[in-house]
Write a structure and sequence with these properties.
The chain folds into 2 domains: 84 residues, Immunoglobulin-like, CATH 2.60.40; 110 residues, Rossmann fold, CATH 3.40.50. 25% of the residues lie in helices and 41% in strands. The chain is built from 4 helices and 15 strands. The protein has 212 residues and is an alpha+beta fold. The chain has a 5-stranded mixed beta sheet, sandwiched between helices. It is elongated and about 55 Å long.
């Protein structure tokens, strides 16, 4: 009986997982102050405070700015972790350009860094990532992926990269930041060591060390 119940439970969980629609995090760029409407639902004025997580598949977008309003053709969002959508008003038309973005995972050490300093660094890294058409993964995703931190540290510190880093392609790069001599009274006199790891090729793309 227990075996039958276990089989039934696994079957239900499998069916439930299959029923969940795939989603992606979508960064949306467009005219400042324009109202974004997706599939008839208003999402707010651009820039949005956070990137919406939307269902994979067909969607239609509309921008309303003053007396100007235009709607895009149906756009099919791909099954990817992150994407960037650029919307441009051109007369009565809305031009939508979609590109897949690279996901960035950040390792910041030590854990004892002051909260204000950690927050400031995170904001700066997120802004830099956006300029390079990448996205810094959100807190929830970071926490899940950091279960691989031991494997990542071996790869970054010792060059021991024989293990697969991630099971899917949602992480393209890993940024390792180590801040030394940082405390609440000397935030301006710390030393920063930064290493960028390409998670796809397992190569160190860049590394830099400098006092701050």
């Amino acid at each position: 009986m227990r075996k039958l119940l276990l089989v039934a439970l696994l079957s239900l969980l499998s069916m439930r997982a299959e029923a969940q629609p795939a989603t992606l995090e979508l960064a949306i760029n467009g005219p400042l102050g324009a109202l974004l409407v997706m599939d008839g639902q208003a999402f707010g004025k651009l820039p949005l405070p956070v990137n919406p997580v939307v269902r994979v598949g067909p969607h239609r977008f509309r921008l309303e700015l003053g007396k100007q309003s235009a709607e895009s053709d149906t756009l099919n969002l791909p099954d990817s972790s992150h994407a960037e959508l650029n919307l441009t008003l051109a007369g009565s038309s809305l031009i939508a350009v979609l590109r897949i973005t690279d996901g960035l995972l950040m390792l910041m050490e030590p854990d004892t860094l002051p909260t204000a300093l950690r927050s400031s660094i995170t904001t700066a890294v997120a802004a830099a990532a956006r300029r390079e058409h990448s996205v810094l993964l959100g807190t929830d995703k970071q926490a899940t992926l950091l279960r691989r931190q031991l494997v990542l540290t071996r790869c970054i510190d010792r060059g021991d990269c024989h293990e697969s880093l991630f099971q899917n392609a949602q992480v393209s790069y890993v940024l390792s930041l180590r801040i030394e001599n940082a405390d609440s009274s000397s935030a301006g006199s710390c030393r920063l060591r930064a290493i960028l790891l390409d998670a796809r090729t397992r190569d160190l793309s860049a590394q830099e060390e400098e006092p701050r």
